[in-house]
Design brief:
Length: 97
């Protein structure tokens, strides 16, 4: 993976990145503080972005994160193109006499 700045949003990813917990050897103990943080943490774990190395020790998998971002982008681009074409078609209907 090429070196690049990590523009990752969210409280949990920021915490893992600040503590450099981005590899199995760098795993940190983590316990969510409240319900919204627990929900976000569970979502990251379900997507394989936050991984557990030992009970209670987790790390942020940058490769999995960037793969998830790429999957979302590959889905969003065709949808944006279709919506743009549809909006352009609707706009042209107003200019017909």
């Amino acid at each position: 993976m090429a070196l690049r700045p990590h523009r990752i949003r969210g409280v949990i990813p920021a915490l893992f990145l600040a503590r450099h917990a981005i590899a199995p050897d760098d795993a940190i103990a983590f316990q969510p503080r409240d319900a919204p943080e627990q929900a976000a943490f569970d979502q990251l774990r379900a997507n394989g972005i936050v991984r557990e190395t030992a009970p209670g020790d987790f790390y942020f998998d940058l490769g999995a994160h960037y793969a998830a971002v790429e999957r979302r982008r590959r889905l969003a681009v065709p949808i944006a193109i279709i919506v743009s074409v549809l909006i352009a078609w609707i706009a042209t209907q107003f200019f017909r006499g």
